[in-house]
Amino acid sequence: MPAAGLRAAEDPSVSTAAFVLPSPPEDHVDFSADSVEFVKREDVDLSTAAGTLLKLEGHVVLKETTWTIRAGDLLVDLDSRTAAASSGLEMDDGSSVVYGDSGFFDLEAREGRLLGARAGYPPWRIQAAEAQLYSDRRVRFKSTRFTSCDEPSPDYHFRASSVHLKPKQYLWAWNPVFYVGKVPIFYSPFLWKSLKEKHLLRARVSPGYDRRNGVFARSTTLFNLSPALYGKLYLDYYGSQGPGGGAELQYRDSEDSRGVLYGYTVRDKDTGRERWSVVSDAYRTLSSSYSFQARLQAQSDADFNNDYSRTNAFRVTPELVNGAAFVRRTGLTTTRLSYSRLDRQEAVSVDDPGKARFVRQAESMPRLDFQTAPLALKGTKWLATVTGFADNQFELPRDYLKRTAGGAVEVTRPLNLRRGLSLTPKASFGEAYESRFDDLTSFGSTRTYQDVAIGRYQLGGDLRLNSPAGYWDAEYSLKRRLKPDTMEDDAGAMDRGVEESLLSLQDTLMPRRGVVMRFGTGYDFRRPRDQEISFRRRVQPFFGDVTWSLGRDWDVSLREEYQLEDGNRAFLVQADWGERGATFAGLGMLNTFDHADTYLASAEAGWAPSSASWRVAGALRCDIRSLGGYRIGTARLFEKEVSLVKMLHDFYARVLFRVRPGGVKEVTARVEMLGGLETARKIVKKGWEREWFPWRKKTSEEED
């Protein structure tokens, strides 16, 4: 008999002479209480086993194989192995605890029923009129009120006719009604939630409107297939265009094995075409020496992301870059077998420029590269590097496949001339086979060679001076070409056989912590026969870079390029203050030589009071047309955006208004119940995504 039972038997106030105790059950039941008493049950002969009742009072604890019951009082039928509690109790099955005002338990079947039940299954709290407990740890609640809000007075809750759950597995409910405070918001005939630590599915819907696509609803369903594999399913509907859909799969077993595959498609009613985009990146270490990497980018047209932005920040994609490579690395050599292709979008015809397609511009299929580490030449202080390559290359405007192969040797030696002054001379020679070589020999005259070997040699060096005025680098490079199949300079060619003769000067200066400055220019010494290069053209663009970090709040970047002949070639300034996702501001301006009369300006700002649960952010982007110098002609806002975010303890709400080029005017709304789903593992996975999609925000709040 359990210890509590022995204590009861030793009490002289309790007589046990008239009782015939039942045989011990197969499963052990242990109990303890402040008071234990054998009692009579009405209409039951106490001389039989069926009449054996045990009344436990005060700090009652009853332990069965898988259950532990704690109660103020408990009446136990030792024969039928049932128990009843008339006051507050709790039932612990090892994985969860259910509380009740009263209850009945079948210890043989391991089932029970609690009235006035309360329970917690993270992140959910449940209150119900009745709870039915089953032997497989399933629980059914009737007339239920449940919430995942951890406030004493929940911001929101559900009411349902019944809730069925299994701890750490699932929760589903019939006829749930969602309330915010005391206000009913929506009804659903069925609700299902995972209670697993690693959720298989998690979905959200963002409704919105834009002028091109009409009213739309974009849904994102996140799913986990393994600790290393998770993805997203996109199921969308656009009122003016119809359904769209896609998926994204992220894999990251380790730093040596990771990748992503993304695809999205929609049948565009405006154009009558199937529009789509596919993006993939992968990296895999095959062994200690071998690795594989690949990139896939395919798209129906350049404006697809502008009209149906799902995962790409670049609204217009004029180029597609694809490639793959096997790499072998050892302590001395690196060998790379690769494939690469570049496509640009071009109009199919001048008569119908709207129907554009991507056209192959360049392709290597395949290319082999080989390079050694710097090797010390025996008996000298010179270092030698050997390189080699073989390539099958197509490149517009050529209409044929060109085969090339060759090798080269470069020698170099660092020399310390004095403290703070060093010279690194270098020289190289290489020979390359070319299946076809077109040599411009005179004005309008070209000589074509077939299956020839062409040599090239290069001489140069870098003189570096470390001074209080910065790190100065003066570098010169001369590269000359030999006549095909000879060792003579190709001096008769229009470029005199000189492919490069360039002197460059650069200074890197760090005047204080957080400030890095670079300045430089150069001079081109080439003298081709077919053109006269003026002094102003020979002087290379003057450039200056300044990066300035002022503590944690300010970051300023500035770049300027100026050429004597062309004038300003590039101008870039970007200033950022604060932290994105909180209070911040950013200003930027860009001007390039190919659009010299156009300045692109961008202004972004956000405000999030430290004591508030909301924030607002906005962005303006415009192009400014110059009439020359600083005279402004016209200014046009081509992209406008404003968003409002509100955090309501368990809720994340965001409203976004956006206007983009191409007549896209968009408004989206998103309300998400957090429910404790922001785990460290989810944040880590966002880090995975930023490797392949660097424009994605650091937090999951801004994710589509």
Structure description:
The chain is mainly β and 704 residues long. Among the domains are: 1-87, no CATH class; 107-196, lipopolysaccharide transport protein A fold (Sandwich), CATH 2.60.450.10. The protein is 4% helix and 63% strand. The chain is built from four helices and 44 strands. The strands form two sheets. The protein has a 26-stranded antiparallel β-barrel. A hairpin with a 3-residue loop joins strand 36 (542-550) and strand 37. The longest helix is centred in the last third of the chain and has 13 residues, at 680-692.
How would you sum up this structure in a few lines?
The protein is mainly beta and 704 residues long. It is 4% helix and 63% strand. The two termini are 64 Å apart.
Structural class: mainly beta
Largest sheet: 26 strands, antiparallel, barrel
**Oligomer state of the chains in this structure:** single chain
CATH superfamily descriptor of the domain at 107-196: Lipopolysaccharide (LPS) transport protein A like domain
| Principal-axes shape call | elongated
Mean pLDDT: 84
Radius of gyration: 38 Å
CATH architecture grouping of the domain at 107-196: Sandwich
Strand content: over 45%
Using the coordinates above, name the CATH class of the domain at 107-196. Answer: Mainly Beta
Into which percent range does the helicity of residues fall? under 10%
| Count of individual beta strands | 44
Uncertain parts: 1-17, 43-50, 349-354, 676-684, 698-704
> What is the terminal separation in angstroms?
64 Å
State the helix count.
Answer: 4
Q: The CATH topology of the domain at 107-196, please?
A: lipopolysaccharide transport protein A fold
